[in-house]
Amino acid sequence: MTKNDRANFGSKLGVILASAGSAVGLGNIWRFPYETGNHGGAAFILIYLGCVILLGLPIMIAEFLIGRHSQANTAGAYQKLAPGTQWRWVGRMSVLTGFLILSYYSVVAGWTLEYIFEALTNGFAGKSPEQFIASFQSFSSNPWRPILWLVLFLLGTHFIIVKGVEKGIEKSSKIMMPTLFIIILVLVVCAVSLPGAGAGIEFLLKPDFSKVDSDVFLGAMGQAFFSLSLGMGCLCTYASYFNKKTNLTRTALSVGVIDTFIAILAGFIIFPAAFSVGIQPDAGPSLIFITLPNVFQQAFSGIPILAYIFSVMFYVLLALAALTSTISIHEVVTAYLHEEFKMSRTKAARYVTAGCIILGIFSSLSLGVMKGYTLFGLGMFDLLDFLTAKIMLPLGGLLVSIFTGWYLDKKLVWSEITNDGTLKVPVYKLIIFILKYVAPIAISVIFINELGLLK
Ligand code: PFF
Questions:
Q1: pLDDT in tens, 196-233
Q2: Cα 365 to Cα 380: distance, rounded to the nearest angstrom
Q3: What's the confidence (pLDDT) of residue 180?
Q4: For 302-358, what is each residue's pLDDT tens digit?
Q5: 101 ligand 1 Cβ < 6 A
Q6: Which protein residue's CA is at the shortest distance from atom 13 of ligand 1?
């Protein structure tokens, strides 16, 4: 594909919604609440916000400029910008990370379909909290059902990907993102007005620093990268479809604000809801699958139709959020195969979908019949989550910041960030300072600390 016939997002809004669509996903609504719950609440959120501002936004701008300048998939981008060097491995690692994330992310995305099905068929009606816990456990460890939904979800993603960038990714994001936002607002209002919701709000707003240890920092950093879709060339790939007029700094700021806002709103749904029915916030990955159906039943016990509507709405919201993200991860790997191995987009997408289905099946089974098979004490699903979110994404972010801050030609960086001098970017020097010093040092310190070397 030559520079001129390369696909492009058709509008500024499309650029923001597609990028925000990638960022906003299960990371915000499923992962953020349970990580916050596991790490003690408000103190974790403050450290998380620090990571978003100090590391996330500058690294997002760096990924944008690498992608837009090179007009290539993430692996191709490093090859173009640093030909003949080892930097190409950064791009390749990104593609691998994307593939690994997609395979376990789709397992959870598949769960959302089961819960939509349950909600639609009124399967939540009359269940007690214990029954919700038991039915989640029996569903997620069932060898067949989760796999069926996983396959369906990946086929849905595949279908949008083969439609292409403008007609598939951009158009679907323009419909799904506003829908998601409306549903989330309605649910926040509903959750905070539940009896006993105050304890959940306090958990979110009152920091308890006695719970802060090195794990919290690694958790917050990993969550920031995961949630902002950073460290695996995803926004770099999307930026290769931006046009020359896109303001990279402003786009990064919009995506960062939308993503953080939605994560916090999700917190305002889940914690008031969990506390109000007496469920512990550290229930882990199952948190939203056991709390929410329960909440809707209890909150609207006198008005079952509302319980029905809100349950359906919530899981549709989750599925939409997941879909705009799975599309973006799929695109990283598809664009790589399509451009580097010169295969058609459809064929490339087929390989990605098939590969993810196979790995996804093992991830799914690791929560049930293959529970006994572990590596470093973790089953496949947990291992992939730990390895990608806590190691590979921050490592990718570290390398992106070093590449942009130290390796790339300063003029190239300047002309991308300022659109050849036509934009005033007052924080330009700050961005460069962070990419050169702050990000590499902060990420390395968090890694070293976690390995226990500083203790
Ligand atoms: N940011 C997505 C979420 O929060 O659910 C997940 C994700 C998408 C991670 C794309 C990484 C990525 F490249």
A1: 899 999 999 999 888 888 889 989 999 999 999 999 99
A2: 9
A3: 81
A4: 888 988 988 898 898 889 899 999 999 999 999 999 999 999 999 999 999 999 999
A5: yes
A6: 229
**Distance from residue 87's CA to the centre of ligand 1 (Å):** 23
**216 within ligand 1 shell (Cβ under 6 A):** no
Q: Tell me which of 31, 64, 101 to substitute to probe ligand 1's pocket, judged by most ligand atoms within 8 Å of the beta carbon.
A: 101
Q: In this model, does residue 160 exceed pLDDT 60?
A: yes
User: Quick check: CB of 227 below 6 Å from ligand 1?
Assistant: yes
- Residue 21 in contact with ligand 1 by CB distance below 6 A: no
- For ligand 1, atom 10, the nearest C-alpha belongs to 229
pLDDT number for residue 449: 79
Task: Write out pLDDT tens, residues 80-111.
Answer: 999 999 999 999 999 999 999 999 999 999 99
Q: Is the CB of 22 under 6 A from ligand 1?
A: yes
pLDDT value for 284: 75
| Residue nearest atom 11 of ligand 1, based on CA coordinates | 229
**Whether residue 31 has pLDDT greater than 50:** yes
pLDDT digits (tens, 9 = 90+) for 255-296: 999 999 999 999 999 999 888 878 788 877 888 898 888 878
What's the whole-number mean pLDDT along residues 398-408?
A: 98
Q: Is 375 exposed, middle or buried (0-12, 13-18, 19+ CB in 10 A)?
A: exposed
- Ligand 1 atom with the smallest distance to the CA of 234 is 13
Q: Which of 227, 230, 356 to mutate to test the pocket of ligand 1 (most atoms within 8 A of CB)?
A: 227
Rounded Cα–Cα distance for residues 357 and 363 (Å): 10
Distance (Å) from CA 52 to ligand 1 centroid: 14
How close is the Cα of 261 to the center of ligand 1, in Å?
A: 15
Does residue 452 surpass a pLDDT of 70? no
326 lines ligand 1 (CB under 6 A): no
Tell me which residue of 147, 190, 430 sits closest to 313, measured CA to CA: 190
